[in-house]
Amino acid sequence: MTRQVGPNLSLSFKDLNGWSADGQSAALAAFRRSCARILKLNPDAPLDTKTSAQANRAYGRAGDWAEACAAANHVAASDDAARIYFEAYFTPVYFGSATDNGLFTGYYEPEMDGALSQGGRYQTPVLAFPPEYAAMRAAGRPIPTRSQIEDAIVDGSLDARRLALVWLADPVDAFFLHVQGSGRVRLADGRVMRLAFAAKNQRDYTSIGKVLIEKGAIPRDEVSMQTIRAWLAAHPAEVSSILRRNDSYIFFNALNSDISLGPPGAEGVPLTPERSLAIDRSLHPLGSLFWLETTAPVPHRDNVRPFRQLMVAQDTGTAIRGDQRGDVFWGPGADAAEIAGRMKQPGRLIALLPRKLVRR
Predict the structure, then answer these.
(1) Confidence of residue 306 (pLDDT cuts 50, 70, 90)
(2) 334, exposed or middle or buried, with CB in 10 Å at 0-12, 13-18, 19+?
């Protein structure tokens, strides 16, 4: 039985439930991508400039990670070798109190139909970041809300034909693309366009799941992406007003990257399905390592399975707040959408810090 843990408590790898059963070579491959960034930093620089000063003291400087990162490139391609490497260079540390209730959700890379030109059923634009909004941001002025942006598209004061990267068939698809932050668009000629986060309007995010709960449309314990989509499909006249309750709006870039790679996360490296984790960047730096113990929904079934894996913090999200909060990237496809849409699980998150840092 795992013992109770307190704030910032060093643990043993034997305390990590399922550690010896995890295929950690996949985590090592993801970590190497983060290490490529870390090794370019000044040794005295923090891993992440957006992490608080107190948290950065706990995680150390780039130089504290340099030895482990350099060694990562020389580990043999096997789970056993990866496990030996992580045990040699890192120590598990729990951040939080014994009473903290962890919450772990999922996100994915959605797939949807679109066209490069407006017409027919393709009427919802996915926009690049408008230069005029970039100027507003640079001047410290607020960028318009979602409803204001959509109104500006309709009245022509924001030229969607100039700014649109692609036009989607379904405004709900567009909304969930904003929520996920990346996506794949199937074009009529068979090509696939990759979209990735470029900028946001810096407005507060409002969960439409919460809106529907407050409206009495969906019971709290039944809310998921699937039930939200089903409700919106059954109430088309209310779609616009519901979606506009969320002031946050996301702008995108078109990617030219290898379609076999995941989209870039906040760290700027491709995300790895089931190994990349979005965390609260104010508390945990990008590039750091975590052991995650939780459960995950089984696709198209009502039960869950244990999910105990080594993860790399390579992304963040507006709704991800707290020491024991994380969002698992599941990749593209129907199964990924099914898992991510239903995942809302308890669990615990344990950091892996360089041994020499913990010994100080």
Answers:
(1) very high
(2) exposed
3-state secondary structure of 270: strand
99-131 pLDDT per residue, tens: 678 999 999 999 999 999 999 999 999 999 999
Report the C-alpha dihedral over residues 117, 144, 175, 153, rounded to 10 degrees: -30
CB 96 within 8 A of CB 317: no
Q: How confident is the model over 135-176, as pLDDT tens digits?
A: 999 999 999 999 999 999 999 999 999 999 999 999 999 999
Integer Cα distance of 313 and 277 in angstroms: 5
Evaluate if pTM is beyond 0.85: yes
Helices and strands, number each (H, E), in the chain = 13, 15
Helix runs in 60-99, H state only? 62-72, 79-89
Taking residues 284-300, report their average pLDDT: 96
Which two three-digit tokens encode residue 134?
A: 């970039």
Sheet holding 276-279, edge to edge: 9-10, 90-94, 347-354, 289-297, 304-316, 276-279, 325-332, 103-109, 344-345
Round to the nearest angstrom and report the end-to-end CA distance of the chain.
29
Coil, strand or helix at 264: strand
User: Could you give the CA distance from residue 64 to residue 325 in angstroms, rounded to a whole number?
Assistant: 25
E-strand ranges in the chain read: 9-10, 90-94, 103-109, 111-115, 124-127, 164-168, 182-186, 192-200, 250-255, 276-279, 289-297, 304-316, 325-332, 344-345, 347-354
